[in-house]
Amino acid sequence: MDFKSLIRDVPDFPKKGILFKDITPLLKNPQAFQKVIHQMAERYKNRNLNGIVAMESRGFILGGALAAQLGVAFIPVRKPGKLPWKTYQETYDLEYGKDTLEIHQDSVAPGDKILVLDDVLATGGTAAATIRLVEKAGGQVVEACFLIHLTFLNGHEKLKSTPLYSILQF
Ligand code: AMP
Q1: How does DSSP assign 99-131, residue by residue?
Q2: Does residue 39 fall inside a structural domain?
Q3: I want to staple 129 with a disulfide (CB 3.0 to 4.6 A). Which of 17, 37, 92, 118 is the partner?
Q4: Which atom number of ligand 1 is nearest to the Cα of residue 56?
Q5: pLDDT at position 15
Q6: 54-106: per-residue pLDDT in tens?
């Protein structure tokens, strides 16, 4: 199936100069959505994962579906002030300024094998901060998985030794 034809390019969103990869046409296609989750599930079903850590908000769509399919925990990473319990925080650099992500302190147990999952790997700041959050909680990140890898932005360099997998590359 040609997943790429179901990714819509939206120029200058959310701001000028960004070519936004809109995954909603793929999500709207039930066969395509199922096939994406199936492809990820096939890759991770025998990896003895304890949980999937996904980033707000489009990571939740893929992460929730994959966690249910694999029968492992779903663990959200969110923007500051959204998670109600005790959190760990990690701050990372944006093009202009900084951003922070949070995870519940009790969401990952020491030694847990974790898959980090998001829709798009762009500059890698979000994924790198999420990996640090999992490690802060004592978890071990087995791999970072993305539906889309924007290779020209070199986000993989920020992931350092964490193995990287993506279904689509642009
Ligand atoms: P980054 O930290 O630069 O790797 O950005 C990753 C986060 O921003 C992901 O959660 C993506 O959903 C979102 N993102 C960044 N760039 C794009 C893009 N060109 N199209 C769609 N989403 C993007």
Answers
A1: EEEEEETTSS-TT-EEEEEEEEESSSHHHHHHH
A2: no
A3: 92
A4: 10
A5: 93
A6: 999 999 999 999 999 999 999 999 999 999 999 999 999 987 889 999 999 99
Indicate whether residue 19 lines ligand 1 (CB < 6 A): yes
Residue nearest to atom 11 of ligand 1 (CA): 120
The percent of residues in the chain predicted with pLDDT above 70, rounded, is 100
Whether 71 is covered by a domain: the verdict is yes
Q: In the chain, how many domains are there?
A: 1
32 falls within a domain: no
We report the CATH number of the domain holding residue 162 as 3.40.50.2020
In a domain, 33, yes or no: no
d(CA 8, CA 28): 12
**Closest ligand 1 atom number to CA of residue 119:** 12
Ligand 1 mean position to 69 CA, how many Å?
25
Q: What is the pTM of this model?
A: 0.97
Known catalytic residue at 47: no
Q: Is 58 a catalytic residue?
A: yes
